[in-house]
Predict the structure.
Amino acid sequence: MAQFRLARLCLMLAAIGVTAPALVSSAHAQQKSDAPAAAAQAAAKDTVRPDMFKLLDPAAIKALMDAKNFTEVQNRIAQAEAMPNRTPYEEYVINRMKLSWALGSENNAVALPTMEAILNSGRLTPAEQLNYYQALGDANFNAKNYPKAVEWYNRFVKEGGDASKVRFALSRAQTNSGNFAGAKELLMANINDAKKAGQKPTENDLRLLGQEANKAKDTATYLFALENLVQHYPTDDFWMDLLSRGITRKAGFDEPTYGADMLRLEMAAVKAMPPEHYTYLAEVALRDGFPAEAKEVLDAGFASGVLGKGSDAKTHTALRSKATKQAADDVKTIGAGEANAAKAKTGAGLVNLGWAYATMGQADKGIGFIQQGIAKGGLKAPDEAKLRLGMAQARAGKKAEAIQTFQGINGKGGAADIAKYWVILLQQQGGAAVAAQ
């Protein structure tokens, strides 16, 4: 936040300047006897008295400001303010000098009312007014008066200012003031504008949207932010949160049918899973007759350093040995099952046979059997078979075909969500571009 305050201060200084208008003393104006009377009278309105000029001489003030002698600048301003019968122009000049001092010394308590006084002077051009609206927004943000910052930023945009200049600060001011609806609208606009321009939404916008949606218990918006984060800025933490909230914690998730498929996606998406996820998936794979997959899963768990440690080390090692032995045996006998699967009344055997081949490193062969099984029909969970087809296609390097398969899955119980997130993962890995919705 300190870096943000410094950046906003620099913007304020650039926007409104740190010097007063060029000063002319009234004595100097009166010496212009060759000027017409009306012109001389007009010029006299925009002058300061000689004693005030000595105090606020721009050259002297600049030297003091450059030397960071803010105490002397403050003293001079106080003396000028003590002079009686000040003209509106003298008030304007004093305020400009006071603002220079306040910004230079980072005194928001003085800067805020001074900027408003300058705005109310009627002496600023429309372009200068826009600068002051933005600067007042920045100053109020720095002072943590977020509702007031929102007010000034909105005034800046309403009066014709470039909205892109204040979106970052405005969105944060809205969230800090508890205005989630306003922040959501602005952040969504930022995100959608970036997508329309063919650019990635910023990670800051996505993170902020997710954080505020989580606070507001807006699950749909939180998932939207997470989906975009895993698509554009993937991390294991983002993926784990997405798979949890977007699949397993959703009402209606069918864990007996799709729990293992969710873990297959998780294993593909993250560098390392929790130990219980490796062992659960391996045990399900062994139970369902896929020992090669079980061995693959356990090998990955040991390679990542997650398995084989602590009090469960012996259990992990025993499970791995069991999977390794069964996988070796399965390689020798799998071919004998092809005829039986083909003769079966339903396609379940063909789908299982195809997945077994896919997990043995023969994904292309497995794809054919899974497709035959789906075509034959009679499946208890057709969407599960389609998920296996998509995963086999992904293993075979046929990412475009896998994406097409996953996009055709619309079932309940978690099938559609698993398919959706497979699409995002494959897109990251070079599949057809698919934006998170």
Notes: The first helix runs from residue 2 to 16. The two ends are 32 Å apart (CA to CA). Residues 1-11, 28-33, 37-43, 433-437 have pLDDT under 50 and may be disordered. The chain has 25 helices and no strands.
